[in-house]
Every structure is written in structure tokens, then in C-alpha cells.
Amino acid sequence: MKLDPYKEQATDVDGHWRLRPNYKASFDQVLAEKKEAKKWLGVKAIEQVARQHEASNGLVINAYGFRGPEIENDHLCPRVLTIGDSVTFGLGSLSYPGFMRQYFNERQVGIEIVNAGVEGYAPRNALLEVEKYKTLKPEIVLIYLGWNAIYSLDRASYSNQAISKIPWLLSRIGYVLERLFEGSTNMATNTFNRDLVPNTSDIDIDFWSNVRPKFMSDLDELIKILKLNGSEVYLISLFGLFHEDIKPTDEALSIGHLPLETNNPYVLAAMTSSYNRHLKQLATSRNVEFIDLYQWGRKNLMPLENYFFDSVHFNAKGLEKVGNFLATQISTSKKLTNVYCKK
């Protein structure tokens, strides 16, 4: 795997990675490394935040392998664990868990926020880390996951008809050949730079609107284990740049990117809506809390392009608003109100 220096390949599980414990680097170092690896989206993210926020302590991975300050060994204050992917990990020096921490600190409320976001993680990866999560014994766990799994969806794997797999197989053969001759980095860049073509008549919209993602089973198992560990679990619906009932602006199309499966932003919107619907059903069936970031965002993060860096990642303004919103959503939990401690 081609990993950033602050990540390491898991030695116990194939195709899995973790953050490198005790890693520290300035963002100038991280920026240089991403430029060398031609990870242009990461470069753009760091440079954008650097322009908006001059002060930065750089990237710090603590001894447990989580981004941010060291875990408090005495666990005197209630602990909130935020499980997620690159959206949770953060944009440059900023993250929504960081803004949650700031929210409670400003109110002199002693709640420890642990950022367990890792770039590239899907529900499968989080499930592989569940024993590590359990050792922290968090009072509350927030789960904001799904984008990487959605971006990996392919229609053929959801069809029982072999004939329907042929076009998909041909497209994947072409994709593999392009990677062999062009290189994976250039291929990823070209995929990211594709022109987006909004089309409300696309038959894939209806197809993905009626699909239950297979990776829901990984989330189900993750929730079950965390609940048995004594944590109060919150599932958070996904909120992205593209929506089924909102015509994307030229600016949104210019900053957005889509799964390999499609070049139509309405298809990604359908995938997201379907996932959110099944996520809410899962929350109900497992009797866990559901934070509807999607519905809140449609009222509070408009126009969309003002709060997004790309199709799924919030920009600095978006991260701050989301962090403050999530903090208010958990602040009334009995897991916190019964054990509030002052710092």
C-alpha cells in the first residue's frame, strides 16, 4: 500500500492500515511529502487551511495511534470517541472533533474528545479496530462513516444476472490496463479530474436508490460490540455536496469528484440517500441514537459550495459548524450530564 509517513501497514491484517503512534511533523513536512507522492487533493487541503489559519501545531499522532493530544490515563472526565474516515481525521490542521473539543473547553466542561478518524477507512476498517476502541471505554461513541465504502460500490456486485456484469467487467479491465500503463497515481488524478455530467434521467439513480449497501453488516457488528462495551452509540447520517433535488452549481461541479462507477452527481446523491435511510433503520433496530446531519445541513449549510472542500469533505467553515452542532447533540446525554467535570 502507498501510505503517508504518518500511517503504517497493519502487520496482523492484510490490506489494513493504522496511524503511526507518536508521530509528529509540521504541516510543511506533511505538505512536502504529499507533493512528492503526488497526492494533490491532500496538498490542496493543507494549503487551503494554511491560508485561512496561520497558526498550526502541525500533525500529532498520540501514543495510542489517534490524532490529537494524549489520552488521559486517569479517565476522570467522560470520554467521547469519534470514529470515522478522512472527514473525521480532518482538513489540514482542522477537524470537527477538534471543534467539539473547543466547544466544551470554552464552556469549561471537562469532556475528553478522541479523534479516531483515519483517512480511507470504511466500516470494515473500523470493525478491525474495535478492540482498540474498547480499551478506551468511551462513554459516548460517534460514528460518521460510509463515504469510502460508497465510493467503492459497483453495480455488478448487486446484480444476480451474469449478463449484467459484462459491461462492468469490460470497464474494470480497461481501468486495470490504464493503471498498468499510466500508473495508479495518474489514473487517480484523471479520475478525480473527470467532467461531471448532471443527468436526472440516469437509470442508475433509481437503481442505487433501492439498494441496501452490503457493508451495513459491518456497521451492525461494530455497534453491537461497542454497546456491549458500555458505550452510548450515535450514528450520524452523511451530508455531502450533491443532492437529488438540488441542481449543482458550476462551482459545485468544479470542486466535486465522484466514484469510478459514475460521472453523474445525482447518482452519488442517490447512493448517499439510500445509505442514510438504511443507517436510520439500523439505528432504530439497534436502539442507538441517530443524529440527522443530513437534515440539519440542508437548513444550516447552504449554499452547499460555501461549506465544502470537495464532494464529501467540509471546508474550515463547515468543520466548525458541524463540530459545534455535534457537540450540542451529545451535551444532554445522561452519560455526560451525570459525570460532568470541570477542567
Question: Overall 3D geometry?
Answer: globular
Radius of gyration: 20 Å
Strand content: 5-15%
Distance linking N and C termini? 42 Å
Helix content: 40-55%
Count up the helices. 16
Largest sheet: 5 strands, parallel
Mean pLDDT: 88
Low-pLDDT stretches are none
Order of helices and strands: EEEHHEEHHEHHEHHHHHEHHEHHH
Structural overview:
The chain has 343 residues and is α/β, with parallel strands linked by helices. The chain is built from 16 helices and 9 strands. The chain is 45% helix and 10% strand. Helix 1 packs antiparallel against helix 2 and helix 8 (165-182) packs across helix 9. The longest helix has 21 residues, at 265-285. The chain is globular, with a radius of gyration of 20 Å. The N and C termini lie far apart (42 Å).
What are the defining features of this structure?
single chain; 343 residues; alpha/beta; two-stranded antiparallel sheet; 16 helices; 9 strands; 45% helix
Task: Give a brief rundown of this model.
With 343 residues, this protein is α/β, with parallel strands linked by helices. It is built from 16 helices and 9 strands.
How are the secondary structure elements laid out?
Layout: E1 7-9, E2 17-19, E3 24-25, H1 27-36, H2 40-52, E4 59-60, E5 79-84, H3 86-89, H4 96-106, E6 112-117, H5 123-128, H6 130-135, E7 140-144, H7 147-151, H8 165-182, H9 184-192, H10 203-209, H11 216-228, E8 232-236, H12 250-255, H13 265-285, E9 289-291, H14 293-300, H15 316-330, H16 334-337
